[in-house]
Write a structure and sequence with these properties.
Distance between the termini: 38 Å
CATH class of one domain: Mainly Alpha
Structural class: mainly alpha
CATH architecture of one domain: Orthogonal Bundle
Shape: globular
Largest sheet: 3 strands, antiparallel
Helix content: 40-55%
């Protein structure tokens, strides 16, 4: 859950029938409007006159935040996406895209499903939100004079872990070195939240050596140093895996249908009902049904 969403929900529940009636067929907006055949307003600016020179990343950020970012800031945020674009079909979300290709669904459906699968609890968007929220809360408490060790201890008592620290496959995250090189080049490697990310790592490693920082924590710190709230960071990082998904889809689409990680029928530990006829079906004497059963093999069951 995105921090703040409960407050929004409660505020919306306070609106009575009169408020809802005032919204019937009408939506007041400050975000934008299309005037057919004339112009498009995008957050108060003319899209084709005021914003036409922005890159897509800049426009995306402006849409999320309503703010313009400097060239170096855009370069840094673009790298957050680039450095985690892995076209490996074994990864959980890329596998969804590849399964779409092997099943011959459309690329839009396959990649949309893969992006939805990226909103997992232990990988992807779930940890992104939690570590960004933790950094903002910890920063506020540090400003009030609390000790980082106490903040971390309280977080571990309440949640048992801190998102962004620890990695199940390997202890070291290969992306961190490259991001730190870019941060140093741009003079951003000693900013407040990046320092906080490493300070948290030092405290956690002193307790459990395997709890080293992973890329999710560093990327969230970069976003926080550039002024992104947790909600804004969540929206920004949403397409971070996208560039790696399309190659997985396209490769599976080019291969024979159904050939992506196939499983033998007898590899499935089936514990459901035994083979049986559908209710109301009295016989299976025709040759085509018999042929079908022969081809399906012993691992196939009629359910």
């Amino acid at each position: 859950m995105i921090p703040g969403s409960e407050q929004v929900k409660r505020r919306n529940n306070d609106r009575g029938p009169g408020y809802m009636a005032s919204r019937q067929g009408r939506w007041p907006t400050r975000m934008g409007k299309w005037f057919p055949g004339q112009r498009v307003v995008f957050r108060g600016r003319d899209l084709h006159r005021d914003l036409h020179r922005l890159s897509w990343v800049e426009l995306y950020l402006y849409g999320i935040t309503g703010r313009r970012f400097a060239e170096d800031q855009v370069r840094l945020l673009n790298a957050v996406w680039t450095y985690t674009s892995y076209p490996d079909p074994r990864l959980w979300n890329n596998r969804v895209a590849a399964l779409g290709g092997t099943a011959r669904t459309t690329g839009n459906l396959a990649v949309s499903a893969a992006l939805a699968a990226s909103e997992a609890r232990i990988f992807g968007r779930g940890p992104d939100v939690r570590v960004s929220d933790f950094f903002h809360r910890a920063d506020q408490r540090l400003a009030r004079g609390e000790a980082l060790a106490d903040i971390i201890a309280g977080e571990l008592r309440a949640r048992r872990s801190i998102a962004g620290y620890g990695r199940p496959v390997t202890r070291f995250d290969e992306r961190i070195h490259h991001m730190m090189e870019l941060l140093a080049e741009l003079g951003c490697d000693r900013r407040r939240f990046v320092r906080l990310a490493f300070d948290v790592e030092a405290e956690l490693v002193s307790r459990k050596p395997h709890l080293r920082m992973n890329y999710g924590a560093l990327a969230a710190a970069v976003g926080a140093d550039l002024g992104l709230s947790t909600r804004e960071y969540y929206a920004f990082v949403y397409p971070a895996f996208l560039a790696g998904m399309w190659p997985c889809y396209q490769e599976a689409l080019a291969a024979p249908e159904g050939s992506f990680f196939p499983s033998r029928c007898d590899s499935i530990a089936y514990r459901g009902p035994e083979k049986r006829d559908w209710p109301g079906v009295t016989g299976r004497a025709d040759a085509s049904s018999a042929d079908h059963r022969d081809v399906a093999g012993k691992g196939s069951h009629t359910s």
